[in-house]
Structures are given as C-alpha cells and as structure tokens.
Write a structure and sequence with these properties.
Elements lengths: L1 H36 L5 H12 L2 H11 L3 H26 L1 H20 L10 H30 L28 H30 L5 H6 L51 E6 L5 E4 H6 L2 E9 L10 E10 H8 L7 E6 L4 E5 H5 L5 E6 L2 E2 L9 E3 L13 E7 L7 H4 L11 E6 L5 E2 L2 E10 L5 E8 L5 E2 L1 E2 L9 E9 L2 E11 L22 E6 L1
Parallel strand pairs: 1-10, 12-19
Antiparallel strand pairs: 1-2, 3-4, 4-7, 5-6, 5-10, 7-8, 7-9, 11-13, 13-17, 14-15, 14-18, 16-17, 18-19
The structure holds ligand MTE and molybdenum atom (MO).
The site of molybdenum atom (MO) has 6 residues, from loops.
C-alpha cells in the first residue's frame, strides 16, 4: 500500500512538473521577447505593478513597515509562489484533459496581458512578449503531456496501473486513449519524458537568461556616467565645520548616495536616456514649455542641502536622508510658463505614471524648490530619479519629490488628485518635526559612566531650534546642537549622559525654530505622518 501511495505521489508530482515547466517556458520566452520590445512588456513585472497599484493602502503600509525596501522582493516572491501553485494545478488538470491546460495558460496570459496593457507608457508591441510566451508555454505543455502520457501507457503495459478508468470521451488523455505501447518500452518512455522535461527546462532557463542579458541594453547607467553636470550658478553654503559631531554611530550629516533610503512604487527602476528625455510644462499656464535635458542643464543651477523624508517613516525610522542637491529652480521654470490665476496645484508625473501634487504657493514662496539633476556631486542615481526629479524643502516625498519626472501640469487640488491622495493620504503634507536617537542603539549594553546620547532632528524649512533628552522620565536636558548650513536640513545633536548601572529608557524631543514642540502623542503614519517621541531602552553595566 505504501508503494502504491508512493507511485501515486510520483505521478502527481510528474503532472505538476508538467505545469511548472510549461509556466517556466512561458516566462523565460516572454523575457527573451521583452529583450526586443522593452522591459514594459515583462508580464510578471507588469502584473506585480498592477498589484502594487491595486493594493489597499493599509496593506501597503504594512508591507513597507515590515519589509522596508525589500517589500518589492517580497511582492515578487509572492507572485512567483502563487504562479507556481497555479501552474502545478494546471499541470494536474492538463493530464486529465489537455483543454484544461490550455485554459490555464489562457488565464495566465490574460492576466499578464491585462497587466501589460494597464502599464503607463506600454504600447501594443509590449503585449507581444506575453503572447509569444503563452504560445511557447502551450507548445511546451503539449509536448510534455504527450511524453508523460506515453510513459504512463508504456508503464501500464509493463504491469503498472494505468492512469485511470479508460474513457472514450474525445480529448480525454488517459493511457487507454493511446495505442498500446510495446511491453518493455517503459524505461525508454520514461527516459523520453525526462528528456522532454530537461529540454523544456533548458529552453526556459536559456530564454530567461539570454533575455536578462539582452535586457541590460535598456540600462541607462552608461548614459548616466557620461553626463557632465555644469557648475552651479548659485553655490551652496559651505558645510559648517561643526555640522558633523565626532560621535561614533551618529547618522552622517550628508547621507551617501549608496545608503540613501529609497521609497517608490516602481518594480523596475525606470531607465530614461537623457538624450530622449523631455519635460513638458502645461495646464493652467500662458505658454507650454517642452524642455530637453540640455535645456534644463543650460538653466542656472542651484546647489542646496536638503533633508527629505517619507511620510511612511515611523518615529525613529530610517526613511529620511540629507543630501547636497543640484537643480534648476522650479519657481523660475513655472514663471517662464506663466502660472494662470486660480491654479493652486503643481501636478507632476513620473515616466511610470506615478503622480504627485504640490501647492503652487509653496513652490513659489522663495524656498529652494528644484528640478534636481545632481545628488552629492553626481548625476542623480537611477533609483533616485535619473535624469531629473522634483524636490521641495519641507514637504513629504509623496507631495514633492517626483523621481523620473517627465510632466508638470498646473491645475487645482479640486480638479485632480495625485497617486497617494487618491488612496486617502492628505493633499497637504508638510514634514512633521521629528527627532531620532542614533546612539546608543536600542537594547545596546553600555558601560556605566559618561556616555554620548546622540542623533538627528529635522523640521525641514522651519529649522530645529532645540532638542531635549531625558532618561527614565526624569527632567529634560538640553542637547548640544551641531551647526547647520540653513533651515532645510536635519541637525545633529548630542547629550552627555552619566549612566548608572541598570535598565534605562532614553527619550528625545525637538522644537522647531518657530517654537513648536514635537508632540508626544503617538499618531499613525496614515494619513499625513506619524508623531511621538523616539525612545530606546539600554542596559548599563
Ligand atoms: N516616480 C516616483 N517618484 C517618487 C515616488 C514614487 O513612488 N514614484 N515616491 C515618492 C516618495 S513617497 C518619497 S518618500 C520619495 C523618496 O525619494 P528617494 O527614494 O530618492 O529617497 O520619492 C518620491 N518620488
Ligand atoms: Mo514617501
């Protein structure tokens, strides 16, 4: 009985493998085809993108909180697991009736096609990889089913039980529907199936691998390396000597590009060749503008230090960074276009269709709102928006910091809602005053005696006026504040603590330069940013 059970399991596994292999061929061949038509035609990515855009906002917040920047990897892994399960079931069904298998492939293909066709920027040609992949999958399925059926038929004649009751129904694939195989050919037939399986696996891997390789030609990293950024017309203030406190473990005043946080909805980082990039300015304007990257670089460029933060940053969280940016004045660009009376929203759009709404008033009030092209002395890194992005000091990223910027429309908040506003986030979202303890680390063990408690605080475009620290809910102590080049960056702070042995809790709170203190009340990220005081628990020995 265990032998029969083992044999049944093996049979099911072989059927499931048929489905998995056919799915692998579909995806591998689709990837190869997409290497010719472009990455927008990659069906799994397209479905993942559609999933991101359809995901309820609470679930997305959960994903960002728990998986951080790995949320995309988790999503893609999830899609692959679901795909594999459905493919295995399709294989099992296909061994009962081939039509079920084709139906399964049609469903996969349909979902892929829907994903591709709803991808902003995708054209009719981008549906080809999915169609070709589906056809290749159907072919693989046919071959594998045939090979497995003839193996089972041969095995039956060698004395193994047949696939099931003989059926006369047309299209029903059972051993009895085939010509009886010669006795003794079972081994040959098994080898035939294994060869077919290995062959399809090789086709899937070769297609996918070659596709991956060829898709690299869409990368703009070579084009980025060739960009020579002009010197700034307005040079940023020199970083004051005391901006960086000599405390090991504190966040560096300037966040290096490689460790700057990344938050966006893009599964594949958009690759925009600078020589093809255009920026359109339109809507409620006197004259439409249409700029090339060269036009943008010819404008006087401003260099400015600016801290940007994500609304999804929890109290004490990592989604904040400070860089020295280089860009053209957004206000001057809009002045050239001529803002019509009544326009109150700058609606910016990325190449992938993501949108962002910024108050006209904020952009025009004299702060350093930029169409940025440089970050810390380099062209923008591709994942941070190459070749151009928007930045507005003082506003959360989702209402100000459009990466891969291609379109600016002057409109009203009443007429149009941007990506996250459609999903319930506030249309107006200034960055809330925040402070974070960098050292000591949570649950760190430290030696008794004088120890530095230090970190960063930010209230972009208001400036940090005071930071206070306390231990074990005792009296508040003023931290020493580092120097800053202006009010748009974060500010380092340090407090010397005389630590006595035991378990302690440290807390921090900041006050902006207008005198408003960071509220103690914990509110969640949704709908316009978390509040509350950061705290860490440490053991002193
Ligand atoms: N095209 C595009 N731009 C975008 C986003 C996005 O999803 N797509 N996310 C915004 C958000 S929510 C933030 S916090 C900042 C983050 O910028 P960074 O990834 O360069 O740190 O980019 C903004 N710009
Ligand atoms: Mo964000």
């Amino acid at each position: 009985m265990t032998r029969r059970y083992a044999r049944r399991t093996l049979r099911s596994a072989a059927s499931a493998a048929v489905g998995l292999l056919a799915a692998a061929v579909s995806i591998g061949i689709a990837q190869l085809a997409a290497a010719f038509t472009g990455p927008l035609g990659l069906p799994v990515i397209a479905v993942g993108t559609a999933a991101i855009n359809l995901t309820p906002v609470r679930l997305k917040d959960f994903a960002v909180q728990h998986f951080g920047t790995d949320d995309k990897l988790v999503l893609l892994s999830g899609i692959v697991v679901v795909l594999a399960l459905l493919a295995a079931v399709t294989g099992l069904l296909a061994m009962r009736r081939r039509a079920y298998g084709f139906a399964g492939i049609a469903v996969f293909g349909g979902i892929g096609l829907a994903g591709v066709l709803t991808t902003p920027g995708a054209g009719p040609a981008d549906s080809l990889p999915t169609l070709i992949g589906a056809a290749a999958g159907a072919l693989a399925l046919t071959l594998l089913v045939r090979a497995l059926v003839s193996q089972r038929s041969a095995a039956a004649h060698d004395g193994e039980p047949a696939a099931g009751p003989a059926a006369a129904t047309a299209g029903r694939v059972t051993a009895s529907a085939l010509r009886p195989a010669e006795a003794g050919t079972a081994r040959l037939a098994r080898r035939g199936f294994l060869l077919a399986a290995a062959g399809t696996a090789a086709v899937a891997a070769a297609g996918g691998g070659l596709g991956e390789l060829l898709l690299r030609r869409f990368s703009v990293s070579a084009a980025r390396a060739e960009v020579a950024l002009p010197r700034p017309a307005i040079v940023g203030p020199a970083t004051p000597a005391g901006a960086q406190l000599p405390v090991p473990g504190i966040s560096r005043f300037i966040t290096p590009n490689a460790s700057f946080y990344r938050v966006d909805t893009a599964l594949l980082v958009p690759q925009l060749p600078p020589d093809q990039w255009r920026l359109r300015v339109h809507g409620m304007v006197d004259r439409e503008l249409d700029l090339s990257f060269e036009d943008l670089l010819r404008r006087p460029l401003t260099e400015a230090d600016m801290t940007i933060a994500c609304v999804s940053n929890q109290v004490g969280g990592p989604y904040v960074g400070n860089a020295r940016w280089l860009g053209a004045s957004l206000a001057s660009l809009l002045r050239d276009a001529g803002i019509r009376r009544g326009a109150d929203q700058v609606l910016s759009t990325a190449s992938d269709g993501w949108t962002c709404g910024t108050p006209v008033e904020t952009v025009m009030d004299g702060r350093n709102a930029l169409v940025a092209v440089g970050m810390n002395g380099q062209p923008l890194p591709i994942e941070h928006g190459f070749p151009a992005r928007m930045l507005v000091p003082g506003l959360y990223g989702y209402v100000s910091a459009t990466k891969w910027l291609v379109d600016i429309e002057l409109t009203t908040f009443a007429a149009q809602r941007s990506y996250w506003v459609q999903r319930g986030y506030s249309a107006q979202a200034p960055i809330k005053t925040e402070s974070r303890i960098d050292v000591p680390r949570p649950l760190q063990q430290i030696k008794a005696g004088r120890t530095a408690v230090a970190g960063v605080a930010w209230a972009p475009h208001r400036g940090i006026g005071r930071v206070q620290v306390r231990a074990d809910s005792g009296a508040w102590n003023d931290a020493k504040l580092a120097a800053v080049p202006g009010i748009d960056t974060w500010r380092q702070w340090v407090w010397e603590w005389d630590a006595a042995p035991g378990l302690h809790q440290l807390e921090v709170r900041a006050t902006d330069e207008s005198g408003a203190m960071q509220p103690a009340t914990r509110v969640p990220i949704f709908p316009n940013g978390a509040t509350g005081w950061d705290s860490v628990a440490v053991t002193v020995t």
